[in-house]
Design goal:
With 361 residues, the chain is mainly beta. Helix content is 3%, strand content 59%. The chain has helices at residues 88-91, 270-275, and strands at 2-12, 16-29, 40-42, 45-47, 54-68, 73-84, 106-118, 122-144, 147-170, 175-188, 192-198, 203-204, 217-219, 232-243, 246-256, 258-259, 279-280, 283-295, 301-309, 317-320, 335-336, 339-340, 345-347, 352-360. It has a 16-stranded antiparallel beta sheet that branches. A two-stranded antiparallel sheet has the order 3-4. It is globular, with a radius of gyration of 25 Å.
Length: 361
C-alpha cells in the first residue's frame, strides 16, 4: 500500500525561472506465503503465513533555476535529496516472512548544472552532474560450484559523476543531424556486505555448501568501477525527409567503459578490489527506421513505422555476471575478445525489427 503527497512552487519571468518541490510518502509492505506452515520456528524467528504491514516513510526535496542570458544562451542548475524506500526483496530478504532487521532507506544526493544553446539551425545542451547513492541494496543471481542461488548485498555506496552533451542541426528541409556524447566516472565508495543463499532459500558458503547460518562477507569495493552501464557513450544520427509525410532515419550507437556486474564471489579480498571490475569490450551498433503518415483530415491520421535494430547483426557482450580476470586462479586460460571464457556473460541481441500502425486523433 502506498500513499503520499507532492507539492511544487514555481516562479518565472522572461529571463529567470525558479522551482522548489517536495514529496513525502508511506509505503506499507506485507508478504503472504501459503507454502509456510503458520508458526514455524526458524533460527531467525517465527514464520507466519501472512506478515503484518511494515511501514516505511520516504521523501524527496529538490530545487533549481534556469536563466536565459539571451535568446540563444541559457544556464541552469538544480540540487536534490531523495530518501528512497527499499524494494520489496530488501524488506523481506531471503524469500522469508521475516522483516530485515537492518532495514534502511537509500539516500541519494545529486547536483547538476548545465548550459544550453538555441538557434534556427543548431541546438545543444551540456550537463554536468554528481550524485551520491548510499545504503543501496542489491539482490543478484549467483551460481556457486554449479549450485544456483542468489546473493543479498547491503551497504553499497555509489558515486556517479560525469558530463552529457546532446545536439541537433537542421541542414535544410530534407536533412537533419543528431548527436550525443557522455562520459562518466561511476565508482563504489567504501565497502559493502554480502551473503549467499541457494534456490531453497538456505544459507550457503562460497563453495556452494548449505550452512546453518548465513555467512556475511565483506566486499572490498572502494574505488571499484560500477558495472552494467556503459560509462562512455556516443551516438550520431541522420534524419532524411525526402518528401512530405515520409521520414527515414539512421543512427550509429557506441558504448565503451562497460564493466561487469557486482557479485559476492569476486570481491572478497583487497587484491580483487585492486584488479577492479572486469572491463568488457566496446561495441557499436547501427539502427534504421522509417515512417509514413497518411492524413485523413486536419486532425486525424494514420502513421506506419518500421525499425531495424543492430542492422549488421553485430556480436557483442552486453553484460557479465562475473569478474574473472586473465591469470586468476579460476580463469580458464582461454579468451574471447580479451575476456576469459570462465566468465558468465550475456550477449546482446542480434538483428531485430519492429513495425507498428498508429491512429492519431
Amino acid at each position: 500500500m502506498w500513499y503520499g503527497g507532492f507539492g511544487q512552487l514555481e516562479y518565472s519571468n522572461d529571463d529567470l525561472s525558479v522551482f522548489v518541490q517536495g514529496a513525502v510518502s508511506n509505503q506499507s509492505f506485507q508478504r503472504i506465503d501459503n507454502f509456510i506452515k503458520d508458526g514455524t520456528v526458524v533460527t531467525a524467528g517465527t514464520l507466519h503465513t501472512k506478515t503484518g504491514f511494515e511501514d516505511i516513510v520516504g521523501y524527496n526535496v529538490k530545487g533549481g533555476a534556469n536563466y536565459n542570458i539571451n535568446e540563444n544562451h541559457n544556464v541552469f542548475a538544480n540540487v536534490g535529496y531523495y530518501s528512497k524506500q527499499p524494494f520489496f526483496n530488501a524488506v523481506f530478504p531471503n524469500n522469508q516472512n521475516l522483516v530485515n532487521p537492518y532495514l534502511t532507506n537509500e539516500k541519494i544526493f545529486g547536483v547538476e548544472a548545465g548550459y544550453g544553446f538555441r538557434s534556427s539551425f543548431f541546438n545543444a545542451n551540456v550537463n554536468l552532474y554528481n550524485t551520491s547513492w548510499k545504503d543501496r541494496f542489491l539482490r543478484r543471481s549467483e551460481t556457486v560450484n554449479g549450485v544456483r542461488g542468489y546473493s543479498n548485498i547491503t551497504g553499497i555506496t555509489e558515486i556517479h559523476q560525469g558530463i552529457e552533451i546532446d545536439m541537433n542541426a537542421k541542414i535544410n528541409e530534407m536533412f537533419a543531424l543528431t548527436g550525443m556524447f557522455s562520459i562518466g566516472d561511476w565508482k563504489y565508495d567504501g565497502n559493502a556486505q554480502g551473503n549467499l543463499f541457494n534456490d531453497n532459500n538456505e544459507p550457503m558458503d562460497t563453495n556452494g555448501n548449505t550452512v546453518a547460518e548465513p555467512a556475511t562477507s565483506t566486499l572490498y569495493l572502494d574505488k571499484v568501477k560500477v558495472g552494467n552501464y556503459a560509462q562512455t557513450t556516443a551516438a550520431v544520427g541522420l534524419d532524411v525527409t525526402p518528401f512530405k509525410n515520409f521520414k527515414f532515419n539512421a543512427q550509429y550507437r557506441y558504448a565503451d567503459n562497460l564493466y561487469a556486474n557486482l557479485n559476492v564471489l569476486n570481491f572478497r579480498t583487497q587484491e580483487a578490489a585492486d584488479k577492479g571490475s572486469l572491463k568488457l569490450p566496446s561495441f557499436g551498433l547501427v539502427d534504421l527506421g522509417a515512417s509514413y503518415m497518411i492524413p485523413l483530415n486536419d486532425k486525424q491520421s494514420f502513421t506506419i513505422r518500421g525499425n531495424v535494430y543492430n542492422l549488421f547483426d553485430t556480436y557483442y557482450i552486453q553484460e557479465s555476471y562475473t569478474n574473472i580476470h586473465q591469470g586468476d586462479s579460476n580463469a580458464a586460460g582461454t579468451t574471447y575478445d580479451g575476456i576469459d571464457v570462465a566468465n558468465e556473460v550475456f550477449y546482446g541481441f542480434g538483428t531485430t525489427w519492429s513495425a507498428s500502425v498508429s491512429f492519431n486523433f
